[in-house]
Amino acid sequence: MLGQAIALPQSEFPPGVEDFYLPTVVPWEGTGYWVTKITLLVWVTVAILIIFFLTAYRNPKLVPTKRQWFAESIYGFVRNNIAVDMIGHKGVRFAPYLTTLFCFILLNNLWGIVPGAQISPSSHIAFPAILAVISYVLFIAVGVQKHGIGYFKHAVVPPAPGFILPLLVPIEIFSNFLVRPFSLAVRLFANMFAGHMLLLVFTLGGFAMLNATPLLAPVSLLSWAMTIALTFLEALVIMLQSYVFVVLTASYVQGALADEH
Amino acid sequence: MNLAEVTGSVAAIGYGLAAIGPGIGVGLVFSAYIQSTARQPESSRLTIPYMWIGFAVIEALALLGVAFGFVWMGDL
Predict the structure, then answer these.
(1) CA–CA dist A138, A136 (Å, integer)
(2) Choosing a second label site near A87 at 20 to 30 A (CA), which of A30, A144, A227, A237?
(3) For the whole model, what pTM was predicted?
(4) A239 and B CB contact within 8 Å
């Protein structure tokens, strides 16, 4: 991480996709990647989540301690404001999954603005893709559990006059079973990717201008000030995207649980 | 004689054009939320999740532009 900070002034200016492939932390024979910063950050995320929630609820008190209060408010927020609001009282049984999803995505995204880490594992498509696949399997499984195999008919045949169905059914199949998982994954990935790219443009742009001529030093300072301002914007995007991912998952589950029209 | 020669990637221009639609769409979503809340303040909690869902679905269009800009970089 320090090596990257020292290499910063010499970085090439237009940042590209290769800036997301960080050097491996633990070397492996040959040129392959083994443990990169991304892997490390995901492990740390999982460790933080497990340890925090285990210790927060190891010895629950009637008058909660600070840590227990914090854990309970996160769970309460997801349970009441997402699960119950979106799905209804049946949504309580999905609250544990939604809370885990919310915390995991939030912490993973947060690495994008934590000084020293400054890259989010979610900016690699693999992590959002797997999360989207889990949500996809979940809402189809819930639908099949509730309606049996008729769920697929229920999901793709809207209540409409027969002559319009040849047009509507392909659209519904496309939007419910192809676009949903794809857009869940791409939304999270592209937000984190674009955010990291934005910060890189302003940081490296400052160095590029400074290297070009010292006369541009004030503009470089402005560029770095922009980086700080954009970090706050990133913080907003990070919260929003973890919320949106969970709300959309809840809304898909709600759609799968809905009664016949 | 070349009057206006463009070299390199014009993907940035394409992305700028692609972002117009989602920009208008996101503006409409928030304006509708503000209007509905101004008319009926007690409905604000009820409509918040739907506002975010609408925002997220529209925003996905702009983000597809970011992703495909890199996917097809230099291929088309």
Answers:
(1) 5
(2) A237
(3) 0.89
(4) no
